[in-house]
User: Fold these one by one.
Assistant:
Number 1:
Amino acid sequence: MKKIVLCAIVVLTLGLAMVLAFSGCGQVEHYNAMKLEKDPLASQLQTLQGSYPAFSTPSTSPGANARSGIELPAGTALSRDEELWVIERASQPQVAQRSEDVPESGALMAKVPGEDKPVPVPLKHTDVKAAIAGYIATVDVTQKYENPFGVKIEAVYVFPLPHNAAVNEFVMTIGDRRIRGIIREREEAEKIYREAKAQGYVASLLTQERPNIFTQSVANIEPGKRIDINIRYYHTLAYVDGWYEWVFPMVVGPRFNPPGSTDGVGAVARGAQGISKQKTEVQYLKPTERNGHDIAVNVEIDAGVSIESVICRSHDVRLEKIEGARAKVVLADGDRIPNKDFVLKYQVAGRVAKSAVMTHRDQKGGYFTLMLVPPKELTELKRKPLEMVFTMDVSGSMNGRPIEQAKAAMRWALSNMDERDTFQVITFANDAHKLFSGPKPVTRGSVNEALSFVDRQNGGGGTMMMEGIRQSLDFPHDENRLRFVSFMTDGYIGNEREILGGIHKWLGPSRIFSFGVGSGPNRYLLDHMAKMGSGAVAFLPLTENPDDVMRMFFDRISHPAMTDIAIDWGGMDVKEVYPQRVPDLFVGRPVILTGRFDGNADATIRVRGVVGGQVRETLVRPANTDATAANGALPAIWARNKIADLADRSTWDQDGDWTGRIKQIALEYGLMSPYTAFVAVDSLTRTSGDHGVTVPVAVPVPDGVKYDTTVQEK
């Protein structure tokens, strides 16, 4: 036996052979030297001369550059953390599609009372561990796959992550071997995965379908074997009305796709793959089915200052400790079905966050993130009259509890407007309807008419949101009033790019406030609508009192925002700050900016803005620069924000090379994007057998969403 190690990726194609070596971690396996001698490239691998382009280098840093080049002169002593790939091209694919309902022998199935058909369970468990330092979270997600069938399988799982997650680490574990995935252009990663799958090697592929929707594929899982996939990401936390908020989405909500679209996200019944004709497809369990997949969540908080309170209304949790600035929260054993967003909130001493800046330097330069908190003076001034537009989603996915939650919020809002305001009510499903021909003054009669209109609404039909966007924004503006447009929707659509492009086209002087309704709304769409509309996003989960949510909204708009914000960065010498357009500051809603800098990290920052027609100034002094391990996540967070900005701009500007620019930054920082993907292959052992079964992982519909109004069946 001979040990072979290689710290470069070498891609050489001769005849039917392709040899790749890629970055891994853990114990290096022995490989049969006789097999290498039979390989047409064996002698070249043992006598490498000169240098080859390397696409992945060993590193303990999660943000290591995945495109750095290295040299491999003959006789170089190489790292034990690298492994050799040998993949031969197949003349015929060896993986065949079979029905998931034919598990053959030895299948371990989950079944619920009253259901005739058992449900296969290739995804056994998801484990989530989050470490929060300040307002930066580092999250490790481990998906545990196990083959319950009598034949080897490919498991395919479509799942959500936060839309601002900077995903930059991917590890596949088989037994005691850990294999670190490599970042590649998406087409190349998919090709590598197909080659490995066809030849019987265990392989995994992670692709991004939307900023908050990902597909995990794991090929050639042998009967009875287990494979773990670990994903690590970083993101900043939201700060809402005195509470920091950490959210982990657990299920992709069923999307509506406009007629004729093929690039959406299809929602189909288990076993009905392909009928939606969409590029990405999620299979959903019937209400009587259960697939045995559960989830564990463990959150450790280091807030930096004393924690006063911790709450989680979405799930049952155990607060295992709270000592000063630290707390540990664990999801209770009895609430582990992944069918709704996990939302954890905590409040720190002083109750009100202070503006602060965090910085980090590495070989690429300086990075920072600034939390900009509105000044207290905003609460001293009363607002001017507003033009208020309330737009409510009444499509099929809102039917039942979600639309009742939205209607309750609408009733509170309509009953608490200022008599100096004007207002309009719009609904959308298959098309859009306006209650009035134009905004009406707030009177007892107009409000009663609106309340009656809202009470008559029921969820049904498609989600033609574009028409709702146009009706809400594209009409003459009252120069004497600031227009606030409030969208109440679950955001379950597959054409997000089209919606964001429409907002850019028709926005004008409007401010957009988006309200995510339900247990698992499309947070990516809702957040970006508010960001593009210089407003804010809030959520109406089924567990919250809608009166409380709307009361906070009215508190926010009852005081003038700080607008026309300009920042004097002092001696920091900043560049590439995202978002590029600084949003307005509203009471209780700080703005987080992320950028790069070349100057003095200890500089005092001056923030100026207009409040009630007067210029106000706020000072932000440096705080614990480079002081915590969380600061090391700033390069990845900055790069993720830049990718998001480029993606947003691509929705309305068709002339720029947005694909190339996104791909470049994603590869440079080793991040997931629409055009890059992670791939990992265990090259040392081929699985037995000449075929496999592809088993999509079916998931429950989000809590409160009706299966029969959202899921397409054969």
Number 2:
Amino acid sequence: MKTKKTSVIFLLIFSFCISSPSQQGGPLRLVILHTNDLHSRLNGFSPESEYSPLKVNDDNTLGGFSRIAALINEEKQKHGDTVIVLDAGDFLMGTFFPILEASTGFQLPLMKKMGYDIVTLGNHEFDYGPDKLSTIIGKSIEKGPIPSLVATNICFSKKASADDSLKVWVDKMVLNPYQIIEKNGLKLGIIGLLGYNAIHDAPYARPLTFDNPVKTAKKYARLLKEKEKVDLVICLSHSGVCKDKNGNWSGEDVTLAQKVPEIDVVISGHTHTLLEKAIMVNGTPVVQTGSYGTGLGRLEIDVSRGKIIRSDYRVIKVNDAIPGDPEIHQMITAQEQQVTDRILQPLGLTYSSVITETSFPLVCHEDTLLANSNLGPLISDALYAYVNGHNKAGTDITMFPAGMIRDNINPGTTGKQSVADIFRVVSLGSGNDDIPGYPLARIHVTGKELKGIMEILYMAPSSSRDNYIYFGGLRATYDPERGLLKKITSIETGDDEKGYTPVDWSKQNNKLYSITANTYLLEFVGIIKKLSKGLVKVTLKNEKGEPIQSIREAVIDADTNMNGIQEIKDWKALIWYLQQQQDSNGNGIPEIPEYYRTGSPRLQRDCLN
């Protein structure tokens, strides 16, 4: 009897010893390193022309993948299997590098080599459409191991076939609704969500749709906790946080943490918000690092019995105090040469060509008064000058939205701006050629329709600051005290050199006015009737006054002597415009004119009303 009793006691003790430390109640540590909205900023900035990651304390640039890699390696050297590295989406788009992804599959294997374990998809991963994203994933896998991909609320079409190639990666378990990974004895369940605003910002994801992020999160968090028996659920949520009118933290990811208590940690993205401290929502930390790799989030937690009993959060600044990883830097430098050879050399440029210099910053900050931006007018003027200088028909008006300005122009220590620096400012989109960027298109409207468009554009920033529009070839006034769709008091077309002519918006005036913008923005103009609930009607027309069925019909051909349409891109127009400016100091580099030192809003309050 004594021997049998002793054996039972021994088995109980042995069973207790081999159970997970988390189940025993002993605290286990986890270090979560994370980024969001990297937007392919492989190199530090701004300006990128001064970036020198293998030397420290000699420039003021921020970010850079070689610096991030060095920080990740340092943490892994110190803490080993305690460390997990995550990204909350929008890792692609924003520089020259993504343009070659479908053929080189460079960035995802690079991120794996840097130490990333799991990433989710943001809205910009779909900028080229689901088929192109599928190609990028396939080419990346050919090049080597990639981080695990999670996309939990993605929903494939049962009717359309345009997303079939992406679904293949779901079937092959490359793109998964969740991922389970063990770190330091902890079983972690990782999910990835695209939030409502991000879904709205992913029009080229169609025919893909996305399920309700909160309901999806609750479903999978419960599955992971109850069926998979994970210790923690970590959500990579490309949804975002913001402050409400009272200065309190709110937004989709705060709501997510409130409504889905089964989630233990929310790694947030999309809103480019820098959280110096974690937002604690009923014990759930919500964290975000800003954008562009300027910070590496570090959340250290102690876990006992599936509960976080201690957390410590900070964002490590990625700056010139960090010596970069030489191997990662060498790989990126080699990819720069690919960009030069395959994209820029035919245009007479190289990746590092210096285009212009400036003694002052040109900025567009959505959290300040957008009308005061000096960068917006520079871009719209560049489009106006380029189209009127390169196309016989020219244009009366150009438009460019604040939401498509992706970077500022900072003088740095030398003022010099490279091709890469200027491209980042207007880097979004693609057309029907191999050159990046949305193509410019030209539509025609009557004076009455132009007035209606201006009324809608006046109201548009109230729903999103991204909708603020900068104009070239136009100036207008408004009276905020007037009634609905009666705010605009005058519109004139022209420029400072040739003068301005008032627009007659009476029904009797059949004169057509040409508007040039990229195809993405003109799609917005085309749905003004829907946006205004039918109060404003606009029929987009060609130069003959004939209705057009698609914006693609209106794409401008820069050279009619060549086969096909030679598309004009925003960034090419901006580079050309900057190259036309004066070189007053004689160093062979044109300068951004003093005229742009301050903003010059083309839509101003009517002082007479």
